[in-house]
Design a protein that fits this description.
heterodimer, A: mainly alpha, two-stranded antiparallel sheet, 3 helices, elongated, B: mainly alpha, Sodium/glucose cotransporter, Helix Hairpins, 5-stranded mixed β-sheet, 3-stranded antiparallel β-sheet, 34 helices, 10 strands, disordered C terminus
């Protein structure tokens, strides 16, 4: 299987983004027990939103792998 | 209130359904119409990751620690984000090497070593105990809760309950039975358990639906949606801390748990089993990469609502948060929903137990027991006729033992801990495999000793910081071991090793164990060298995507086909052995009946087939028993290394190509420049020729016009004019002839009639032809011409042409009064030489070369009448050059010009002619 161009870069970038999303500086920003969105605590909303966003990006990398890798 | 028998019946019916699915899956696999060969089943089977821990434990964890249950599910997402680098590579390696378990993987990577495989197996068995016990505890607790609710006190089982009256004991036995039925009904030549995977995928679906059903009921049935539930929880001051990550230790725990889960998704024996060993097609990973994390996300959405719902509902305490998934529906009067939740929890637990115990039994059998048994000479197992029943017995015994060990752990320790805390101990043990695996697939120089020492160090630290304290806390060891440290040494306190305080015990253990593990792994690897087989295996693993093909000719050995066939038959049964050998013969085009000696490829093939059944380390021992094996020579190992440097070779060739291209471009450029120059010369030539043609034409025309216009010209003048016209016409004709000659010669289209001739009569002919001219001009001619001269290979007529040309030139340019020309010819050292000397004004040094150029006549072209065509000497030079000679002009002694030419005589090698010629010229 030929390696799709740029796949490694994309994968590493998505992983780094994931590592950033669930790490110290960003977590601290959203770690506020009092803040809420539609009554749901901000931290929970952030965690699940970041999580689903990351999964979507991962799905994109697999599409890229398929599109020109065969 | 449900009756116990009803619940037991439902549970047994459900497990039977699973078994039916597994049976059907196996049947379809045998027919070649696989049920599980699609990415969705694969992704669902990966969800065996979500066990009772997720189903019951996450809620319990959330109820005490808030969001800190999440890293366990975010970690696998991050690990899968690297799918291209890690999971895909591990799968590819495992397929290429027929890896059957994680122990097999590590043992293979570091040289198919028995010791390492055994160590990994031991760690896996010890490490899995808490995890199995967690499942047993969860199932038995859920069973009790379902039957005795709301009598909460009855849910707590105590150590005083005898095993025969303990639900967990029966759960353990039932699960062992099912695991045996699922995974070890028969020994196959394949490492896949398709039926089991189908059942696991179904279970994953059931547990997801059950958990979502409970979640929806709590969120929208008991409360008025997420907002309502959370705002009620926020109103309780006790619950507010759960809405945030607590500062300090909270973040450290968050990160270590994430890291732990990242390693667990690859290093847990059961995850390795479903993700790698049971993978039927590498491309399924592409979908699973996002489907599996999505599954984890979905199953976690309702964890917090259920946790808060429980905490609000049972505010007085007394209900174990680990049972909220059951107690909330029961409290809401939804008995059927509770039963569904119980089935979901049972699914989660049985899925884990079945896969884990099959994975562990494969490891124990292939990497621990068989290698030892095979090496005990007294047993003579290598000669035994049928080993497949032995293999099955070992595996079944292992499954029962693992579950009983798990039960023992529950009895001894389980009571003191929540579900997640028990599970994390197992995660920390599995994480010890990570350095050896990740390092093994990326770092070629990692050695067996490095992996061995890393694993040993990590396992030792894990035992000291997690396992022993657990025994101490459950009262089996003195509690002072934890509180004051062993023998009162505070530095060695297992939860605060070397004074590392302020973080939770899991993070503490993970930090210390992985630090030592990685340190030893790298340090020892750097300090030692690899053996030949380690090097070979390292290259096969790290460079699996390069070349890809299994190198079959590395191992030299000799064995007969019959030996190998009976060996394989002993393990997988004769019909199956015949089948695989026939397949091999077909694909390789080998005639089995005619082949006696098995080549290296054949031995390799047999070893791989066996590896699929009993693991790499055992397969090696077995094959070695029939094969006289020679270790690979240095040359062959070097060849393996060369494979790596092939890439370098390619790039080198590429560079060479581009250099060649550059050179070609340079040449083309040079050719182009020469073409341009030739083009310019052609233009010059044409303009010069037309100029030279116009001069006589103008003369002819003007005299012709005079004659035509003027009738009064006297006859004398008319005759003179006509003479001029005739003369100029002749000159014109000569000029055109010469131009044509020169053009032909330069284009190489001249027809030469080369013959060996004696030059003497030829030169005499030229002298005779010009004698009239000499007389006419009154020029004296001195001739020195020997009668005979050595033969030369020339075109006779052309030689005459040269001599005539030189003589007539000499006549033209000798002194006007008392003109004299000297003609001499001779031969010296195989060279014919001819000189023509006149007593004219001679030529200056710069003129001597110029006269050989076309249309370059010396003298003042403005005042002097042109006395020749300007093509004579260039033509002479062409002719002489064609004969292999040289023509040049020098100053004659006493003024005048001396024209000489030389031609090599026949019988003289051409290439030393110029040398001799030069000497002749001197």
């Amino acid at each position: 299987m030929k390696e799709p161009r740029g796949i490694r870069d994309r994968i590493v970038a998505v992983f780094l983004l994931g590592a950033l999303l669930f790490n110290l500086p960003l977590l601290v920003i959203f770690n506020d027990a009092a803040a809420a969105v539609f009554g749901i605590p901000l931290l929970y909303v952030y965690l699940f939103a970041a999580w689903i966003g990351l999964i979507a990006l991962m799905a994109l990398t697999t599409r890229h792998a398929r599109s020109d890798g065969g | 209130m449900l009756s116990a028998w009803f619940v037991v019946l439902i549970a047994i019916a459900y497990l039977s359904l699973l078994f039916a699915i597994a049976y059907y899956g196996d049947k379809r696999a045998k027919q070649g119409r696989s049920l599980i060969r699609n990415p969705y089943i694969y992704a669902l089977s990966l969800a065996v990751y979500a066990t009772s821990w997720t189903f019951y434990g996450s809620v319990g964890r959330a109820a005490s620690d808030g969001v800190n249950f999440l890293p366990i599910y975010i970690g696998p997402t991050l690990a899968f984000a690297l799918w291209w680098f890690v999971p895909r590579k591990i799968i590819r390696i495992s397929k290429a090497n027929r890896i059957t378990s994680i122990a097999d993987f590590i043992a293979s990577r570091y040289g198919k070593t028995m010791l390492l495989g055994g160590l990994v197996t031991v760690i896996a068995v010890v490490g899995i105990m808490p995890y199995i016990s967690l499942q047993l505890k969860a199932v038995s607790t859920s069973f009790t809760v379902l039957l005795s609710y709301p009598d909460i006190a009855a849910t707590a089982t105590t150590r005083s309950t005898p095993p025969l009256r303990d639900t967990a004991f029966y759960v353990a036995l039932a699960m062992a039975t099912f695991a045996i039925l699922f995974g070890t009904r028969h020994i196959d030549a394949t490492e896949h358990h398709e039926g089991m995977v189908a059942a696991i995928a179904f279970e994953s679906l059931v547990k997801l639906l059950a958990f979502l059903a409970v979640g929806l009921f709590v969120t929208f049935g008991l409360y008025d949606g997420f907002g309502d539930l959370f705002s009620r929880a926020l109103a309780e001051p006790d619950l507010v801390p759960l809405f945030s990550i607590t500062a300090g230790g909270g973040y450290v725990e968050w990160m270590t748990l994430t890291l732990l889960a990242m390693t667990a998704i690859i290093c847990l024996p059961r995850q390795f089993q479903v993700m790698v060993v049971e993978n039927t097609d590498e491309r399924h990973l592409e979908k699973a990469v996002w489907l599996f994390p999505l599954y984890l996300l979905v199953i976690n959405i309702f964890v917090l609502p259920i946790a808060f719902g429980g905490l609000l509902r049972f505010a007085g305490g007394g209900v174990d948060p680990d049972t909220f998934v059951l107690t909330l529906p029961l409290a809401g009067g939804q008995t059927w929903l509770a039963l569904f939740a119980f089935i979901g929890g049972l699914s989660a637990a049985t899925g884990m137990v079945i896969v884990a115990s099959i994975a562990i039994s494969t490891m124990v059998c292939n990497d621990l027991v068989m290698p030892i048994l095979l090496r005990i000479p007294g047993l003579r197992l290598t000669e035994h006729q049928d080993l497949s029943t032995l293999l099955l017995a070992i595996r079944r015994l292992t499954i029962v033992s693992v579950l009983l060990l798990g039960y023992l752990y529950t009895r001894l320790i389980g009571e003191s801990y929540a579900l997640v805390a028990i599970g994390l101990v197992s995660f920390a043990a599995a994480a010890q495999f990570a350095p050896a695996i990740i390092g093994g697939i990326f770092w070629k120089n990692a050695t067996r000793r490095g992996a061995l020492s890393g694993l040993l160090a990590g396992f030792a630290v894990w035992t000291y910081t997690l396992l022993l304290p657990a025994f101490a806390r459950s009262g089996w060891l003195s509690i002072s071991f934890v509180e004051q440290g062993p023998f009162g040494i505070a530095t060695l306190k297992p939860y605060e090793l070397f004074g590392l305080t302020g973080i939770d015990e899991i993070s503490h253990a993970v930090i210390w164990s992985l630090m030592l593990n990685i340190g030893c792994y790298i340090g020892v690897s750097l300090a030692g060298a690899q053996s030949a087989i380690e090097r070979v295996q390292a290259l096969l693993f790290v460079d699996v995507f390069r070349g890809g093909a299994w190198r079959s000719h590395i191992w030299q050995g000799s064995a007969t086909v019959g030996d190998l066939r009976s060996l394989v038959a002993r393990l997988v049964g004769p019909p199956r052995a015949d089948q695989v050998f026939a397949r091999y013969a077909r694909t390789r085009g080998v005639d089995l009946a005619a082949t006696v000696a098995a080549d290296a490829g054949f031995i390799q093939f047999a070893e791989r087939e066996l590896a699929g059944t009993i693991g790499a380390a055992s397969a090696r021992v077995l094959v070695a028993s029939v094969v006289e094996e020679e270790p690979p020579s240095i040359d062959e190992v070097m060849e393996m290394l060369d494979e790596t440097s092939q890439v370098i070779e390619y790039s080198r060739r590429l560079e060479e190509k581009s250099r060649q291209l550059e050179a070609a471009t340079r040449e083309l450029r040079a050719v182009n420049a020469r073409l341009k120059e030739v083009d310019r010369l052609k233009d010059d030539f044409i303009s010069t020729v037309s100029h030279e043609l116009r001069t006589p034409l103008t003369l002819i025309r003007s005299f012709g016009e005079i004659l035509a216009d003027r009738a009064d010209i006297d006859d004398h003048q008319r005759a003179e004019f006509l003479g001029i016209i005739v003369r100029e016409s002749k000159r014109l004709t000569r000029l055109i002839d010469q131009v044509l000659d020169l053009a032909k010669m330069e284009a190489g289209r001249m027809e030469w009639r080369l013959d060996e001739v004696d030059p003497s009569p030829v030169l005499g002919e030229a002298l005779a032809a010009t004698s009239g001219l000499f007389k006419e001009r009154g020029v004296a001619l001195d001739v020195t011409l020997p009668e005979r001269l050595p033969a030369v290979r020339v075109d006779r007529d052309r030689l005459v042409q040269v001599a005539v040309n030189l003589l007539s030139n000499a006549v033209k340019f000798c002194a006007a009064a008392d003109g004299r020309v000297w003609f001499e010819a001779g031969a010296r050292r195989g060279i014919l030489w001819v000189t023509v000397r006149d007593n004219g004004r001679g030529l200056s040094e710069s003129e001597r070369e110029v006269v050989f150029e076309r249309f370059r006549q010396v003298g003042d072209t403005l005042t002097d009448k042109p006395r020749g065509t300007g093509l004579g000497l260039p033509i002479c030079r062409q002719i002489i050059a064609y004969f292999g000679g040289r023509i040049w002009i020098e100053a004659a002694p006493g003024g005048g010009a001396l024209v000489s030419f030389t031609i090599p005589c026949v019988g003289l090698a051409r290439d030393d002619a110029p040398d001799k010629e030069r000497r002749a010229a001197e």
